[in-house]
Write a structure and sequence with these properties.
Blueprint lengths: L5 E7 L12 E6 L5 H8 L18 E6 L3 E5 L10 H17 L3 E9 L6 H13 L3 E6 L9 H12 L7 E3 L8 H13 L1
Parallel strand pairs: 2-4, 2-5, 5-6, 6-7
Antiparallel strand pairs: 1-3, 3-4
The structure holds guanosine-5'-diphosphate (GDP).
Organism: Salinithrix halophila
Function: Necessary for normal cell division and for the maintenance of normal septation.
Family: Belongs to the TRAFAC class TrmE-Era-EngA-EngB-Septin-like GTPase superfamily. EngB GTPase family.
């Protein structure tokens, strides 16, 4: 998809603030610091619309970006950071559960993970949760530029096996640095929102 327009609609702290236009929505989930904001910026050709390196533990919001007036990205708060209080974790759980179970225009989730390492406990728990809820998932394994091409198949296998991915779920190698995987990711997103 050629992105000609992308804008932040709202950083929502409460479901009452979620956009009501009912455009198909793709939510992005990933461990804090995995590279989720960088992926969004690369997908929409913006250097800094989705802010990078946000501090863990700050107010948790779901950020809604409208793209070309035809779909919305919902950027969920990062999960799995080690040093936050129980209260912050509980708030993350409440917000995410409410969003994932009640958002009627949700077309699917883009789960962002780090290609370099085996999926973390939190990555695995998130994937299992999404499967349990019956939500379609695309996995984007980012930071592909940080390992050599020859190692990609091995790391891809590590992700698939670590998450116990269903064979029908797409796994896309991505790099926000080089743009690797961008077209493939847009085409999978296109498939989800037209289903
Ligand atoms: P977020 O917390 O998941 O939104 O992560 P960010 O997008 O802020 O990225 C965290 C760090 O990883 C930043 O220093 C980014 O520059 C870096 N980063 C993110 N994606 C990539 C990538 O594809 N390749 C490389 N080399 N670095 C990346």
């Amino acid at each position: 998809m050629k992105v000609t327009q992308a804008e932040l609609i709202i950083s929502a702290v409460d479901p009452r603030q979620y956009p009501e236009d009912a455009l198909p929505e793709i939510a992005l989930a990933g461990r804090s610091n995995v590279g989720k904001s960088s992926l969004i910026n690369r997908m929409i050709h913006r250097k800094n619309l989705a802010r990078t390196s946000s501090k863990p533990g700050k107010t948790q919001t779901i950020n809604f970006y409208r793209i070309n007036g035809v779909l919305t990205f919902a950027d969920m708060p990062g999960y799995g950071f080690a040093k936050v209080s129980k209260a912050v974790r509980a708030a993350w759980g409440r917000m995410s559960e409410q969003y994932l179970t009640q958002r009627h225009n949700l077309a699917g989730i883009l789960q962002v993970i780090d290609l370099r390492h085996p999926p973390t406990k939190d990555d695995i728990a998130m994937y299992e949760w999404l499967k349990h809820l019956g939500i379609p998932v695309i996995v984007a394994a980012t930071k592909a530029d940080k390992i050599t091409r020859g190692q990609w198949p091995k790391h891809k296998k590590q992700v698939k096996e670590g998450l116990q991915m269903e064979p029908k779920d797409p796994l896309i190698l991505f790099s926000s640095q080089t743009g690797q995987g961008k077209e493939e990711l847009w085409s999978e997103i296109g498939r989800l929102i037209s289903d």
